[in-house]
C-alpha cells in the first residue's frame, strides 16, 4: 500500500460525513420514531391469558423470573389454571433476549415498548405482579406475527385487550363438536 493512501481514505470519509446534515436530536423534547418490533425494557403481561405454567421462568437463561403459584381449581380449555401469587421479573439482570416471550405457549407475556425506566436502586427494577397488571398494554410486535399481520404499532395505536393478542382463536363449541363428535 503506498504511503499516505490510508490517510487519504480517512480524509475522504471525514469529508463525506462533513457534508451530511447532523442527526443529533434534543431528547426528551424530540424523539426518534421506534420500530414496532422494538424490545423495550418493560414487559406486557395479560393475566387472563396466563395459566401459571411458568414456561417463561423455565426458559429464562438468567433465572430472573420468579413465579409462585397455587392450585386454583379453575379448569380452562387448555387444562388447569394456577393462581399466581408472585410474578416478579428482575429487570436489573434481564438481557432482553426474549426467550421468555418465545416460550409462552398462551401469548400471555410480550416484550414492551417503553425504555424510560431508570431507577436509583436495583431493587426498584424488579417488576412485580401488581406492576405487571397496571402496565400499559402496548405489546411490542417482536416475535408476535399476529400483531404484525394486523399492522399494529404500539407507539401510535391503542392498547390491546387480552383477546386481541393471541395467535390462535379458541374454537367455538360448534366447531369442536363438528371436529370431535360428528367427524368420528
What's the layout of helices and strands?
Layout: H1 5-18, E1 43-45, H2 55-59, E2 65-76, E3 79-90, H3 99-103, E4 109-111, E5 126-127, H4 129-134, H5 145-149, H6 173-182
Antiparallel strand pairs: 1-4, 2-3, 3-5
As an assembly, this protein is single chain
User: Level of helix content?
Assistant: 10-25%
Backbone shape: elongated
- Low-confidence segments, ≥5 residues, pLDDT <50? none
Largest sheet: spatial strand order? 2-3-5
Class by helix and strand content? alpha+beta
Distance between the termini: 78 Å
What does the average pLDDT come to?
89
Number of strands: 5
Task: Report on the biggest sheet.
Answer: 3 strands, antiparallel
**Structure annotation, total helices:** 6
Radius of gyration, in angstroms, nearest whole number: 23 Å
Strand content is 15-25%
String of helices and strands: HEHEEHEEHHH
Short description:
The protein is an alpha+beta fold. The protein has helices at residues 5-18, 55-59, 99-103, 129-134, 145-149, 173-182; strands spanning 43-45, 65-76, 79-90, 109-111, 126-127. It is elongated.
Structure description:
The protein is an alpha+beta fold and 184 residues long. The chain has 6 helices and 5 strands. It has helices at residues 5-18, 55-59, 99-103, 129-134, 145-149, 173-182, and strands at residues 43-45, 65-76, 79-90, 109-111, 126-127. A 3-stranded antiparallel β-sheet has the order 2-3-5. The longest helix is centred in the N-terminal third of the chain and has 14 residues, at 5-18. The radius of gyration is 23 Å and the shape is elongated. The mean pLDDT is 89.
Amino acid at each position: 500500500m503506498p504511503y499516505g493512501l490510508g490517510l487519504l481514505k480517512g480524509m475522504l470519509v471525514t469529508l463525506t460525513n462533513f457534508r451530511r446534515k447532523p442527526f443529533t436530536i434534543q431528547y426528551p423534547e424530540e424523539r426518534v420514531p421506534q420500530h414496532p418490533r422494538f424490545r423495550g425494557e418493560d414487559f406486557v403481561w395479560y393475566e387472563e391469558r396466563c395459566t401459571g405454567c411458568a414456561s417463561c421462568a423455565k426458559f429464562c437463561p438468567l433465572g430472573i423470573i420468579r413465579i409462585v403459584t397455587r392450585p386454583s381449581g379453575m379448569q380452562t380449555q387448555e387444562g388447569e389454571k394456577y393462581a399466581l401469587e408472585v410474578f416478579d421479573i428482575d429487570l436489573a439482570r434481564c438481557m432482553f433476549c426474549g426467550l421468555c416471550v418465545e416460550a409462552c405457549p398462551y401469548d400471555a407475556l410480550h416484550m414492551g415498548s417503553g425504555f424510560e425506566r431508570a431507577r436509583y436502586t436495583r431493587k426498584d427494577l424488579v417488576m412485580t405482579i401488581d406492576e405487571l397488571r397496571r402496565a400499559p398494554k402496548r405489546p411490542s410486535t417482536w416475535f408476535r406475527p399476529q400483531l404484525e399481520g394486523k399492522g399494529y404499532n404500539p407507539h401510535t395505536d391503542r392498547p390491546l385487550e387480552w383477546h386481541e393478542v393471541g395467535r390462535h382463536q379458541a374454537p367455538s363449541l360448534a366447531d369442536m363438536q363438528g371436529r370431535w363428535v360428528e367427524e368420528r
